[in-house]
Design goal:
By secondary structure, the protein is α+β, with helices and mostly antiparallel strands. The protein is about 35% helix and about 20% strand. It is globular, with a radius of gyration of 25 Å. It binds a DNA duplex through helix 3, helix 9, strand 9, strand 11 and strand 12.
Length: about 425
DNA sequence: TCTGGGGTCCTAGGACCC
DNA sequence: TCTGGGGTCCTAGGACCC
């Protein structure tokens, strides 16, 4: 069997790089993209210049500004980033049709079997052919989209992911066929994708520090606490899953028993909110947004989940499953009911979120199931939003409308509200 | 110095049915 | 009246990723 060749392509300090394209004065300066200075936000991207001061993504803005007061803090230009993601993907698709967008700044490509297509006399072997192709692709992104990227290549997605980290900044790193174990073994357990702070500390207290130690834990009938994890690491060195099945390089939404995912929106308040009815108002806005996104994607949701975070960071989730719907009013009723029944503490609320999951595609039929067909008013609102964006209209708790932009004619149906 | 937002996946317990 | 084993679905929480 031919060895699988997976490439992980990662855009370097993506948000910072895009901001520098928009404003070249930021080039060479320490830049932090995140929430507003003094807000409750966290760092979403930090330039290499500011990382030397200990600033990293996920850190609170307050902490970052203490470590690097001289840095330029920008809130970020939401809405423009995904356009660059699309442009990068277009470049990648020139090299292989097997491209998956994993996140706004990360892609996986399958080059398995592409060796003959790209073979040149100067390449020594198949590995060298693929590596040269990926180097060329990386340069094409720099040339055509002006964004720096790094790429890792290996036998599985996890190996490729780890290789791409080693390639940073703006490089390519290949784990050659057969060298997977020697690549993994000396690395700390935390380097493996999927092992975070919690698992790391559990492993460490059992005296396991490196992936080599973890991989050589005996498999088999006497399963230790970590044997499943050890098997995951061993599997990453080959093209199979934890249960030994050979698996496809990529899995599509809705394929192989997977689901259509979930859609969620949430918000952390600038200040904790004590008044329940004020929290409910925010919830209604979130439901509005989530249900709109579901309708845009053409899916119905069977499960609705409310997340409630109190001022002391205690966080609860409550969900309810029922008939599939994407209708705002039905979802609003469920979420408000979940909130009223489950806000048991008197404490002020810090954050709320609404998610829909258990998504299904409406079956094509003459009469749509209840909730699949938007009410006339919703339809009119959706139409305006498709043209002008979600924020063009705000729907009040009673269904009343507010137009946030001038020059938009209210839909005729909505005028009766 | 408190700790975002949008996701995925896994686990464990309970209900319910056969 | 007591006693089972599976399988599936639902719920809640947690770990992790970018």
């Amino acid at each position: 069997m031919r060895s699988p060749r997976i490439c992980c392509l990662d855009l370097d300090t993506f948000f910072v790089s895009v901001e520098r394209l928009l404003n070249p004065e930021l080039i060479g300066k320490p830049v932090v993209v995140g929430g507003r200075l003094g807000s409750r936000g966290v760092v979403t991207a930090a330039s290499y210049e500011v990382r030397t001061y200990g600033v990293h993504s996920g850190m609170s803005i307050v902490e970052a500004s203490r470590l690097a007061p001289h840095a330029v803090f920008i809130p970020g230009t939401h809405g423009v980033y995904s356009g660059y993601t699309t442009r990068v993907r277009e470049v990648l698709e020139r090299y292989t049709p097997e491209v998956r967008t994993a996140s706004i700044d990360e892609f996986y490509l399958d080059f398995s079997g592409c060796e003959r297509l790209y073979r040149r006399p100067e390449h020594g072997d198949d590995d060298a052919t693929i590596e040269a192709t990926v180097r060329d692709m990386r340069q094409a992104i720099q040339r055509d989209v002006s964004l720096p990227a790094s790429a890792g290549i290996g036998v599985s997605r996890r190996i490729a992911k780890m290789a791409s980290r080693r390639a940073k900044p703006a490089g390519v790193y290949m784990v050659r066929c057969g060298e997977e174990w020697s690549f993994l073994a000396p690395q700390p357990v935390r380097a493996f994708p999927g092992i975070g702070p919690s698992t790391e500390s559990r492993l460490q207290s059992a005296g396991i520090d490196t992936l080599g130690q973890l991989m050589t834990l005996p498999p088999g009938p006497r399963r230790s606490r970590f044997s499943g994890l050890a098997e995951s690491v061993r599997a990453a060195a080959e093209r199979r899953d934890r249960l030994g099945r050979e698996r496809p390089a990529f899995r599509e939404h809705g394929q192989f028993g997977s689901t259509l995912g979930s859609i969620s929106n949430g918000c952390t308040f600038a200040e904790d909110i004590r008044d329940p009815s004020s929290v409910e108002t925010h919830l209604l806005g979130l439901v509005d947004r989530v249900s709109w996104r579901a309708r845009k994607r053409g899916v119905l949701a069977r499960t609705v989940t409310l997340t409630l975070r109190y001022a002391d960071f205690d966080t609860i989730t409550r969900s309810r499953t029922g008939p599939a719907t994407a209708e705002t009013e039905r979802l609003r009723a469920t979420v408000v009911d979940l909130f009223r029944k489950n806000r048991t503490r008197r404490m002020a609320v810090r954050m709320v979120a609404v998610a829909v999951s258990n998504l299904v595609q409406p079956r094509p039929q003459l009469s749509l199931p209840l909730g699949a067909e938007p009410a006339p008013v919703s339809q009119a609102i959706d139409a305006v939003r498709s043209k002008h964006g979600f924020d063009a209209i705000k729907v009040g708790s009673t269904g009343g409308l507010r137009f946030h932009r001038t020059g938009i004619a209210p839909p005729a149906v909505a005028s009766k509200t």
